[in-house]
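Hi all, long-time lurker, first post. I run a small reading group and we've been trying to get comfortable going from sequence to structure in the token notation. Rather than ask abstract questions, I figured I'd post a concrete chain and ask someone more experienced to write out its structure so we can walk through it together at our next meeting. Sequence below, copied exactly:
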Amino acid sequence: MSAKLTVGILVSPGYFVFDILGVHTVFGMQPEVELHLLWKDREPVLGLPTFPTVPTTAFADCPAELDVLAVGAIPGEVLTDPEVIDFFATAAARTKHVIAICGGTFLPGLAGLVNGKRATTNFHLTDLLPHVGAIPVEGGQVVRDGNLWTAGPVTGSIEAALLVLAELRGVEVARRTELDLEFAPNPPFGTGSPALAGPELTAESMQAFEPMRDELRDLLSAAARTA
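-- Answer (accepted) --
Happy to help. Here is the structure in token form:
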């Protein structure tokens, strides 16, 4: 029988569902896993795109030690909430592996966990990582630095979770899980990265994300001034 694992995943109003589904699925389907959806309280929250979610565990009831703590992209008001930052920093200090997906990388950043470490996020935001002291890594691969694992959105959640599962339960368990999920991405249009999409389509995508970039840049700058 495998040793029991305790996994915590942050959910919040406006959290991006696709960033945490991979972690939730990879670990949730394992035997002997205690999985917690973490928020300030247990009142329902609405994830994005529209996805009603009921947290299972309030911050105050989070287990003292976690094997995995995960976060995906969250809106600016949650990202810069002192209560959220303090909780994440405290929980991460007692966690074996921290997974941050997409814009979620900025939460451990604001919690002081990525200073001087290599990290990644979605390609629209990678150049903003130095605002939280990170060494940005491009290319779309899962990046590990110590016990911190960062990745881009959607498939990055599955990829990071499988790699962490291999650390905790062994490579053969992770290989079997990859098969059980039939995780063999076959994108229909082959445009899932800037290198594949080309400069014109990439520029369009960057332009669409510009309001988010501006908001995040302003929030990080304000956080730096008050630190």
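A couple of things your group might point at:
The mean pLDDT is 96.
The longest strand covers residues 33-39.
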